[in-house]
Fold this protein.
Amino acid sequence: MNSTHHLGQTKLHTVEEVKKSVAGSIEKLGFIPNLLLIHNPFIPAEGQLGEFWGWLEDLVQDGTLKDCSLGLSNFRPVDIETVMKVAKIKPVVNRKCSWRHRLKLIIFQKSSTIPMS
């Protein structure tokens, strides 16, 4: 079964909050999703996006998110670049974007390896 799950509608400031949120999501679902998306770049505290991505990578590497891909949702080009600078595990997708950023994102995605869905 394929499953995608969005992480966050509230800000997550610490690694402990991220772990708790992910564990809660897995518990509610009853399984580990195939794809975990960060919903818009404003879920981490301001200036913490790269560190936040690293925390998710750690959860993949320690087996908490075993066989789970990581992706983005509603990210702007500048925020995608922030993640790409630090990512050991590259995002597999940037799902949907707001119309306000769509043209900039389409132009950006032509030079990026991350597909948009």
